[in-house]
Amino acid sequence: MLLQLTEIFTDMRILDAIDLILVAYLLYEFYRLMRGTSTINIFFGIISIYLLYKLVNYLDMALLSEILGAFISVGVIALIVVFQPEIRKFLLMLGTPGYIRKNSRRFLFWRITYSSVPELDTQAVLQACEDMAATFTGSLIVIERGNELGQFAESGTRLDASLSPTLIASIFFHNAPLHDGAMIIARNRIQAAGCILPVSANPHLPPHLGLRHRAAIGITEQSDALAIVVSEETGKISLAEHGQLKEDLSMEELTAMLQEQFPGQENKH
């Protein structure tokens, strides 16, 4: 056994090492997507069965190898069904320009530069959030980046209006007809308001989070958008990105986060 293992490592090519590194990286990224959800246990169970299959196959245990092989061959279809949300999120992540730019240092051989940065008048958004937080006006603002949000905009009322703090605050005013839904900002304009968003099904979210916060997390699980929430009860500001929620942000923290995502565009009008 030891001699065989030594021969395996001796015969290993550089391409084999690269193959192992890439597989390890893909598994790690997939694990990150499922971390904190119930599907992580299924993921570990499948990995365990696959490793067991490779072991019994290597030891020439014919009967057990055949049983596990049949299970794995049928299990590919089951994987697509069980992990459909995670596979969708994984593909969205890989296809997002912002993800490649953000993680470019992790790829020594992968240097792709994207010159197009989504426009956003961050000052207008920040001023509106500050005003709504001071008056305890509940709101949910979704900012489109790489992935288009047209399907979610269709669920609300199309506006295609200029971005201004007064308009944002008036839409979310308590008696306004569109205040209950989400506002979608795309290409530096208010694309739609009163939009219905997918609510996160993550069972590990804190119980104090309301529907606005869960919808903010849900839309960022399915796209690369940013979602800003102003709590109607506390006036606190939260920001969701990639399915993660940062709560109780100060205006300084929110400003830094938006200007990091939209550099050099804080004064665009």
Write up what this structure looks like.
- Helices cover 50% and strands 14% of the residues.
- With 269 residues, the protein is an alpha+beta fold.
- It folds into 2 domains: 2-94, no CATH class; 122-261, YojJ-like (1 (3-Layer(aba) Sandwich), CATH 3.40.1700.
- A 7-stranded mixed beta sheet has the order 2-4-3-1-5-6-7, with helices on both faces.
- α2 packs across α5 (84-94), α3 (39-58) packs antiparallel against α4 (62-82) and α7 (122-134) runs antiparallel to α11.
- The longest helix has 21 residues, at 14-34.
- The radius of gyration is 23 Å and the shape is elongated.
- Mean pLDDT is 80; it is low at 104-115.
Q: What are its keywords?
A:
single chain, elongated, seven-stranded mixed beta sheet, 11 helices, YojJ-like (1, 2 domains, 14% strand, alpha+beta, 269 residues
Oligomer: single chain
> How far apart are the termini?
70 Å
Low-confidence stretches: 104-115
> What's the CATH architecture of the largest domain?
3-Layer(aba) Sandwich
Topology pattern, helix = H, strand = E: HHHHHHHEHEHEEHEEEH
Number of β-strand runs: 7
Q: Average pLDDT across residues?
A: 80
Could you say which overall geometry the principal axes of the C-alpha atoms support? elongated
Strand order of the largest sheet: 2-4-3-1-5-6-7
Count, helices: 11
**Largest sheet geometry:** 7 strands, mixed
Full CATH superfamily name of the largest domain: DNA integrity scanning protein, DisA, N-terminal domain
How many structural domains does the protein architecture include? 2
Helix content: 40-55%
Structural class: alpha+beta
Q: What is the CATH class designation of the largest domain?
A: Alpha Beta
Radius of gyration: 23 Å
CATH topology of the largest domain: YojJ-like (1
Proportion of beta-strand residues: 5-15%
